[in-house]
Amino acid sequence: MPLTPHRHASDGAAPHDRTVRAPARHRASRADTGHAHRRRTATALLAPAVSVCLLAASPPAVPLGIGDRLFPHLGNPGYDVLAYDLALTYPGRNDRPLRAVTTIDARITADLDRINLDFAHGTVASVEVDGAPAVFAAAGEDLVITPEDVPDRGERTRVTVRHTSDPVAGDREGGWVRTADGLAMANQADAAHLVFPCNDHPSDKAVFTFRITAPDGHTAVANGLPAGADRTRRATTWTYRTPHPMATELAQVSIGRSTVLHRTGPHGLPLRDVVPTRDRARLEPWLARTPGQITWMEGKAGRYPFATYGLLMADASTGFALETQTLSLFERDLFTDPALPAWYVESIMVHELAHQWFGNSVGPRTWSDLWLNEGHATWYEALYAQERGGRPLEARMKAAYEASDGWRASGGPPAAPKPPEPGRKIGIFRPNVYGGAALVLYALRQEIGRTAFDRLQRDWVARHRDGTATTSDFVRLASQVAGRDLTGFLYPWLYGTRTPPMPGHPKWRSTARTTTADPRPGTHDHRTAALPDTGAHRPRGSRE
Question: Which residue intervals make up region (Disordered) (predicted)?
Answer without folding.
Answer: 1-38, 501-544
